Amino acid sequence: MRKIILPIFALALAVVFDSCSSVKVLDSWKGDNASTMRDKNILVVARTNNPQARYAFEDAITAQLIKEGFKATESYKKFPKLNPDKKPTEEKQEMIRSILESEGFDGVVISVVKDYQEAEQTTTSGGYNVGAGYYPSYYPQYYGGFYGFYGMPLAYSTWDSGVYMPTTTTTRTVKTFVLQTLVYNLDLPQDKQMVAIVTSKMEDPQKASVAASDYALAITNALKDKK
């Protein structure tokens, strides 16, 4: 039996950061009906007001879905004028529903940035002998159906010889994003449409294309069937 894999996401980011991205899954849930997504025509939506980030994440998520055997399309390719980060009116929601139905989309993977924080991180190095050994130690009821959700406002060391290195201190700003991805089967009743959700934390991502690939991998691993 093939594994059910539902990778997903989007991040308001197109700037290059100096450090590598770190993605950690904080929480995930997958319903018993997640297998229903296998035969769906899925629209991938990255809810962000940054066009370049939207393109990068929708491309990465769609590519991963297709790799795993799903049928998926980036929303920016199908609906280039759609602003997924703008809160839709009831009229706009009805129009979106009509478009999805007319285009044959019966599944949606939507990603949003839930929180963003900046914190100062101080790192101290040196104070030890170079050349010596160094050993460091260091869900569904709340969200409802897709259309309802879419309209919501929401480190012991040892040493014995070598050249002593003086202590130096470096302070940098750490940027942290909390991301959430939801998977919907639009053919199910409103209260059963959400079939999977993953909440992740991403620290200091690089440019959007790299961050998107890292995120998609983390989401894929979180949603794989457990053996």
From TrEMBL:
This is DUF4136 domain-containing protein.
